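step: validate -> pass
step: tokenize input -> pass
step: predict -> running
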Amino acid sequence: MNNNIPGLIVDSIVRQDGTNELVGVATVTLPDVENVTEEMSGMGVNKFNEVLASEFNPLTLGMKFMGPTANVGFSKGKTTSLVITSSVDSFNKTTHEQEEKKLVCSIKGKLQKRTGGEIGRGNKNEMELEFSLTYYKLELDGIVLYEIDVFNKKAIVDGEDLYATTNNILG
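step: predict -> pass
step: emit ->
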């Protein structure tokens, strides 16, 4: 039983290729993990949406910068690896003490969209990037919450390997 109440993100850091810190990142929007659905119907069966447990809609990650920057090298259509590490605040229900946990998001994907932001007096001109992902892993204190690898038939959600049965059948 989890004895912690989730709190706020204390701080985060974004690293490209695991080492180079990206300076100026304001926020990162993690992917929505949404299952693919297929509408089903037939004789004697009303329409319903079949949820495909191990298939997901395309994953995207958004990254907003505090202002214009020349520190971003995601061009040439190459796959980018990012690791976003955060310290997450929580509160122990028994002791009422604050505890910090490590949240790690690892992604691989390609830059698909650049938004220039707004220009105006006093504006921050927050440049935004959007990545199309082929790999996404989210861990909280070493526990895998999500791991989706579109090229290697891997889909772990809430600790459950959704491809286990299929991979066993296929050998």
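step: describe -> The CA atoms of residues 78 and 110 lie 6 Å apart.
step: cleanup -> pass
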